Amino acid sequence: MTRDNASYQGALGHYLSPRRRDPVKTLMEEEVSHKIFASAVRRLRLPAGRPLRVLDIGSGVGDGFDLLTETHGDLAPVAAAHRLDYVGLDGDPDMVETATALHSVPGATFRVGDMRDRLPDGDFDLYLSCGVPYSHLTTGEVTEVIANIMRRILDAGRRAAIIVDVLGRFSIEWMSNWHSPRWNYAMTFFEDTTERLEQQMTFFDRTSLGEAIAAAARSAGAQPAELNFTDRSILVGRHTATGAFNPSIPPYRTLINDLVRDPSSVSLRELYFEPPRAGAPPEILHFFRTLAGSWNEMLDQAANSGKGIRALASALLRCETREQRGLGVGHSLTATVIIDAS
Ligand SMILES: C[S@@+](CC[C@H](N)C(=O)[O-])C[C@H]1O[C@@H](n2cnc3c(N)ncnc32)[C@H](O)[C@@H]1O
Questions:
Q1: φ, ψ for residue 117, nearest 5 deg
Q2: Which residue's alpha carbon is at the smallest distance from atom 17 of ligand 1?
């Protein structure tokens, strides 16, 4: 069977651009990822003093390493760089070369390899992913990769965590594609590059990702001890700024970034959210109605009082993260799976 291979040729400019770390990313997205990683590591109950052993799958230029070792807001690093035994795996040699150059610390190595092939040897505590690398695979391939990791964990005989990061099926960024779980996705949000990447990608909701994980567990003979899901960037995904797939929604990400940089430049009216009324299962539509209620109420309060506009961007981002239920309604959906060895 032929396999689609991701090509990120030309995307390095985006990953290295300082403009990629916009306020939405630094104020909210990085914190959400940090909390997911920290929570997974806490659940491992590792012996004090032992380095954290991480395999970052689809590591790109090494954001996973940075997310683990840097502070985010008030949050202390998940692991100090010298307490990390980190291997990044990526199919793109340019990404690996750049990641290696950016992370010349003893505990970090980056390797070229396809996650669908044999994974690097090692007994890892955390099989990390971020930036939706699993969405490059078909659902069947995702299942196989997760099953292989589960077998590896069972063989190693120790509790470990798998973090599976994918694109959310029911993001408002691509409402016209909600009917299909796999379609041609253009990453037109790339900064500082003229390249346009187009690839078939797979989009998941909680049900389909949960089914893939359950099928992997059956195939590996594993029993997930814990499983939870997190939606990230529900109204502020990068494609709300490009309008590439849904030009009829306000550019929420741009508006929130502007609200942080210069509150007087934003008309609050533009930020109101009209929830979608059809095209998704009732649970998803109900979620959007609830989110709209909380989000729009915050805008009403800010408009009526005229106070607190400066803090409004953070409050709206917090509203998103508080309301999320891990349904597959954000730009990304992250599953955390804890596997016990016995
Ligand atoms: C959007 S990037 C995310 C990179 C990084 N984790 C981050 O958060 O910025 C997805 C990465 O997955 C890699 N990738 C895609 N398919 C892969 C595969 N089958 N095996 C290994 N890496 C893959 C790509 O080369 C790319 O670097």
A1: -95, -170
A2: 91
Where do the H-state alpha helices sit in the chain?
A: 12-16, 23-24, 30-44, 63-69, 93-102, 139-156, 206-220, 238-242, 252-261, 282-305, 309-323
Which residues, judged by CB distance below 6 Å to any ligand atom, belong to the binding site of ligand 1? 6, 8, 58-60, 63-64, 89-92, 95, 114-116, 130-133, 136
Specify the length of the chain in residues: 342
Do 227 and 245 reside in the same domain of the chain?
A: no
Q: Whose CA is nearest to atom 26 of ligand 1?
A: 60
Shared domain for 243 and 99, answered yes or no, is: no
- Where in the sequence is the domain holding 135, given as residue range(s)? 12-234+326-339
Residue 226: enclosing H or E segment and its boundaries?
A: strand 224-232
pLDDT digits (tens, 9 = 90+) for 178-224: 999 999 998 765 555 555 678 999 999 999 999 999 999 999 999 99
Distance, in Å, from the CA atom of 166 to the CA atom of 232, rounded to the nearest integer, reads: 10
- Tell me, yes or no, whether 104 and 159 share the same domain: yes
Whole-number Å distance, alpha carbon 250 to ligand 1 midpoint, is 29
> Which residues are within 8 A (CB) of 282 and not within 5 positions of it... i.e. 6 or more apart?
none
Distance CA(194)–CA(198), nearest Å, equals: 13
Ligand 1 geometric centre to CA of 133 (Å): 4
Q: Do 207 and 288 have their domain in common?
A: no
Q: Does the pTM of the predicted model rise above 0.85? A: yes
Residue 4 falls inside a structural domain: no
**Protein residue with its CA nearest to atom 4 in ligand 1:** 60
pLDDT tens per residue across span 313-334: 999 999 999 999 999 999 999 9
- The enclosing domain of 82 has a CATH number of 3.40.50.150
In a domain, 2, yes or no: no
Q: 260 and 219: one domain?
A: no
